[in-house]
Amino acid sequence: MMKRVTLRSVDEEWDRIRFDVSLDEHCRIKKERIYFGFEGPFNEAEGSHPVMLNEKGFIDLGDGFEAYSRYHKINLLEKEIKLKEYATIWWKNGLDIIEATYYIEAITPLD
């Protein structure tokens, strides 16, 4: 079953992130795939950009970013996908790592 999962930062410092994912019978993301999504406002193309979630639990912001700030760890693949479930992203900026907490704000069926 395909779902769009919307993550929202608990402190609203970060933009929403959405991924279109395939879930298994336990409402967990199937790990053997790569998923696409976007970060930023839903109706504002200029402020949004595509993202990718790989099978190892890394967000890839794409080649428009320098290598030191392109890949970021997320624990979403370890979570049950349900409303208000928390996930953590470790945003990497050079040697600095910023830990940010998100929650699942919406789950939208895509089937």
Give a short summary of the structure.
With 111 residues, the chain is mostly beta strands. The protein has strands spanning 2-9, 17-22, 35-39, 49-53, 58-60, 71-74, 86-93, 96-109. It has one domain.
Question: Can you describe what's shown?
Answer:
The chain is mainly beta and 111 residues long. The protein has strands at residues 2-9, 17-22, 35-39, 49-53, 58-60, 71-74, 86-93, 96-109. Strands 1-2-3-4-5-6-7-8 form an 8-stranded antiparallel barrel. It has one domain. A hairpin with a 4-residue loop joins strand 4 and strand 5. Helix content is 0%, strand content 48%.
* Number of alpha- plus pi-helical segments: 0
Q: How many angstroms does the end-to-end distance come to?
A: 7 Å
Q: How much of the polypeptide forms β-strand, as a percent range? A: over 45%
Weakly predicted, low-confidence segments: none
- The coarse silhouette is globular
Q: Work out the radius of gyration.
A: 13 Å
Mean pLDDT: 92
Write down the secondary-structure element order.
Answer: EEEEEEEE
How many runs of DSSP E, i.e. beta strands? 8
